[in-house]
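::Encoded backbone::
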Amino acid sequence: MSEERKQQIISALQAIYEGFSPTEDEPELTMFGLISRYNATGQNAELIGGDWVVENCPEPLRSLPD
């Protein structure tokens, strides 16, 4: 994966994190919720998962609960 693509993914994940609004059903964003939302965008051609986020993303993304 190119560094440019990696940065595109990180930016997309950061936007999802920043746009998250807690609800009664989902009071906090989890790693599962983050990846599910990213999958829903149709941009996950690389099929990244939580391990990729932990290895490649800055805080607070890498520390989201499972």
In short: The chain has a mean pLDDT of 97. Residues 3-19 form the longest helix (17 residues).
